[in-house]
Design a protein that fits this description.
Elements (H helix, E strand, L loop, with lengths): L1 H4 L3 E5 L7 H13 L1 E2 L8 E2 L2 E5 L5 H6 L5 H7 L16 H16 L5 E2 L1 H9 L5 H15 L4 E2 L1 H10 L6 H6 L9 H19 L4 H8 L3 H10 L9
Helix pairs in contact: 5-7, 6-8, 7-8, 10-11, 11-12
Amino acid sequence: GLFEEADEGTLLLDEIAEMPMSIQVKLLRVLQEGSIRKVGGAAEIDVDVRIIASTNKKLASLAKEGNFREDLFYRLNVIPMTVPPLRERKKDIAPLVEHFVKVCNRKLNKKVRGFTAGAMKLLISHDWPGNIRELENLVERTITFSTSDLITTQDLSEIFHMDGITAGQKEQERITSVKDEISLDRLYGRVEKEFILNALERNGWNQSQTAREIGISRSSLWTKMKKHTIKSQPPS
């Protein structure tokens, strides 16, 4: 169906390295013969489609190891293009963020105007091991939890800490650096406690408002506060 819809156009095959061998065989036949056959049909339908295949893996190595069809690799590898990782394209971060904000506003019915200068500086300083997908997911998560029309460094710090990323001097002082031997449960507990403390501070320690902001019931918030020995009043 996709090849028929893309006839005389372009079809992007994202993460081609993850394609099962059984599908690789069918794709190779389409590329070689320039035609498709619908499921249950007998007639061949000619298609003229430009294929763009993307991957974050080395297809040549996978082909040599037998984990990707070598004949399909050579059929696809006509004009190879290498896109540098996001950490080497810092100038692209701002326009990408602007685009993702617009997309997320439509998707989440929000009216976020953008990121403050400090927040953008924080994004640019990050290495982005997950590249554009990591940036897109972070923008969406930040907008989801945001209660204002501007994303601040405080908003980002909470999301970064949920991902185990160091961000912001205040958080650096409040969270002990994580040792390699720390258990996942203990790490999650630290992050959850810090997240709840920040939310309580933003809402003047009003538990009902805090629960609404982070999307849980007041009783669930109280249970988590008890679990992490968080008192109902701010520390003196």
